[in-house]
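S.,

As promised, the thymidine-5'-triphosphate run. Input:
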Amino acid sequence: MPVAKPEPQEPRVIAHVDMDCFYVQVEQRRNPALRGQPTAVVQYNDWKGGGLIAVSYEARGFGVKRSMRGDEAKRVCPGINLVQVPVARGKADLNLYRSAGSEVVAILASKGKCERASIDEVYLDLTDAAKEMLLQAPPDSPEEIFMEAAKSNILGLLSDAGEKEKNARAWLCRSDADYQDKLLACGAIIVAQLRVRVLEETQFTCSAGIAHNKMLAKLVSGMHKPAQQTVVPSSSVQDFLASLPVKKMKQLGGKLGSSLQDDLGVETIGDLLSFTEDKLQEQYGVNTGTWLWKTARGISGEEVEDRLLPKSHGCGKTFPGPRALKNSASVKGWLDQLCEELSERIQSDLNQNKRIAQTLTLHARASKENERDSTKKFPSKSCPLRYGTGKIQEDAMKLFETGLHEFLESQNTGWSITSLSVTASKIFDIPSGTSSILRYIKGPSSAAPPAIPDSSSVPEDPSLDNDVFVKPIHEEQCQPSTSQKEDNNTHSASAISAKQCQANEEKRISKKLPEVKGTSSILKFLSRGQSTLHEKRKSDGLICSHQGPGSSSEANKAEEHNVPAEAEDRNNTSSCAEPSGSNTWMFNIQDIDPAVVEELPPEIQREIQGWVRPSKHPSTKRRGSTISSYFPPARS
Ligand code: TTP
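Predicted complex:
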């Protein structure tokens, strides 16, 4: 259920940028002969010409829709070019589109905080850039307004087609505008400049919404497509929301939206205005009630996250109709392929971005032979993620078997699987300089040691790779899950003080690392020590911070880990000291993969246990044997 976030005191400028018919544009860049032609990208499939997943605006003009299959599109538009999605391992290979999306993100991220929301859309927080423009070079003359900005659609600005540009120019440099509108005008100019840069450097067009919050920016970014932008001044918010169907609002597309319609007779967001906050809270609980009340007024405090990388990686495949999988051998065949791809992707994330995924989840859609109409769902199953293709394949199959067992409820009946997906989630950053963790994480099936990441490289994009990619699922995957947020909060509950780190860190850092060999055995580790360890971890939320060159300040790092700086002083349980005056790097003990811990030398393991159970092992820390020696900060 949605929860209202506190709104910031200061006005913000937020943009939502969405690529136009993205996959088609990528294909048109590969084959310029397709430019300006009715074109659609088709999902690999030989049934009725495959399913359309992206349709060019020229083809839309002929009535071609994404819901059509290739054969139908040809009937509607005989001249249409149908381009097949690249295929690898018998399923769609979206790498081409992912890296095209990364090109765009690299440009958009140049002007402010950037959150990659899906394969082809981002949120930008342009508040600082807009403030700077307002201070340094505010728009003051209609004639000098950047051409693309002058084409903006400004919500609530009445003008016929002939006057539109003239009015927009005037609006963008009104001297009598309030501060909020002035910032918004600067934001609109910045977004227009960014969109032109994207076009020049990638050949892709995009559309954008510019508003004071994410919710409004997202709602309008698709309003004038393709290649246009829409601005939402505060004064036009109420009119805009008044007629907006509830189901169009993010978070109201499902059961909550249906309940608003059925139980309260609310059809548009404007209809919600007639309910008091108390009434909405009474109906939907305190949090959701407040969220609805605020949403009706266009208020949203949701922040743009600084995130260019995915929160999870997923690979999926659907098996509709006759393609359904009906025995374990065929499930294993497909799962192996999906896991192989997932393994490659998390390994590449580790190599390029120094990020480790901790949880493997298996989702499936299934039905029982004798109960086709049953609503019982195949339960999603998760386990700690072990690196290495073979291990992931093995664990995924076990998860499948466990899920199937539950799903069948001990009935001896036939079954069929119509979709399978594996996801790697709970991804965390290895603190900078912890090169040795990369060595430890490398399981026997990982062929090569992870490369030292190149900080200048453009990060991988966050898209999931579902064979038939359904947007809402995709978005969901890109959002933090409640449990993830809860976890973060748990981390913040207590943290080991940076001041507790022991002195002479640099000496230890320069100590030669011993060679430690072993196999990753996270499951073994967890079955042995998980319950105590996890309970303690949950209550302790340990963080250890260490000195290291070139990293950010303690407070900043604490923020990165959602740890209030003051919380660090409350916990005197750990044992690392910091030489004063130098920078700090931190890691959260909860973020260390237990498999990694198990492979460390015994004295290090004892030390970690000491952090986890400080009262029982107050003096397990020994000079020269602390964990920091093994996860040392980078040396410049
Ligand atoms: P969208 O942004 O939803 O659509 P689009 O970019 O094709 O067109 P528009 O101009 O209307 O925004 O999706 C981005 C890409 O994601 C799309 O080009 C293809 C892919 N996609 C799928 O593979 N399956 C889907 O169900 C959807 C909705 C999109």
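Residues 443-591, 611-636 have pLDDT under 50 and may be disordered. Residues 18-23, 53-54, 119-120, 225-226, 469-471 surround thymidine-5'-triphosphate (CB under 6 Å).

- D.
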